[in-house]
Design the sequence.
């Protein structure tokens, strides 16, 4: 079983591969890298599958499961936001005109990556590529106890320890030496490791059971 986890960073992606006891990290510039890899399943921390109004059951379930930290789930992705508009103000004006929720600045700024993954998933349907969320993975690894924010020293330290406990023996080198000049932050590396575990051990999902698909046939299901 070869599993790959991907998380976005400033210059592209952080990609962590698990192959038996081996753990490797790479920093590809774009999603085409994944098509060149040999793997059984990949998981990525980005929405896969979108609705016209941005409402997805998987996001609502994820926010509820992460309570009281539901805001860690960025929801509201809609293809038309980035297909039709180049600035968030105009996109939000149109969202209000359509009686839809506004898009957050955090979500707006990862729009290019959302659309990159959307195009990749639609053009590579033969690949087992699943949406994941690192906070759900870390919650599982922490026996269901909510974690401090990853933007705090305590939150980073706990996530690091959980990953060390799950076989990422080279993690400290990845966090220091290997991520230099890649545009990846420490939490980007930690999140990629977490979704790699979701790819390898994908057994739980939101929603559980039958897959809900969007108008393009892409699944709207978050694995952890």
Sequence:
């Amino acid at each position: 079983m070869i599993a790959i986890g991907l998380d976005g960073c400033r210059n592209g992606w952080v990609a962590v591969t698990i192959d038996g006891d081996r753990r490797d990290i790479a920093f590809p510039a774009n999603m085409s890298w994944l098509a060149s890899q040999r793997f059984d399943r990949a998981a990525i921390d980005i929405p896969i599958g979108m609705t016209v109004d941005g409402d997805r059951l998987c996001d609502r379930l994820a926010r509820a499961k992460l309570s009281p930290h539901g805001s860690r789930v960025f929801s509201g992705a809609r293809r038309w936001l980035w297909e039709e508009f180049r600035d968030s103000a105009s996109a939000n004006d149109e969202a209000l005109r359509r009686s839809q929720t506004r898009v957050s600045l955090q979500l707006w700024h990862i729009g290019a990556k959302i659309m990159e993954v959307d195009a990749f998933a639609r053009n590579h349907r033969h690949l087992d590529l699943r949406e994941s969320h690192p906070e759900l993975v870390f919650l599982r690894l922490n026996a269901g106890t909510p974690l401090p924010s990853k933007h705090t020293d305590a939150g980073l330290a706990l996530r690091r320890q959980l990953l060390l406990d799950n076989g990422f023996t080279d993690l400290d080198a990845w966090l220091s030496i290997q991520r230099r000049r890649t545009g990846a932050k420490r939490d980007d590396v930690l999140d990629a490791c977490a979704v790699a575990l979701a790819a390898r051990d994908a057994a739980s999902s939101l929603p559980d059971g039958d897959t809900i698909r969007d108008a393009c046939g892409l699944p709207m299901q978050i694995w952890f």
Summary: The longest strand covers residues 2-9. Residues 141 and 162 are 7 Å apart (CA to CA).
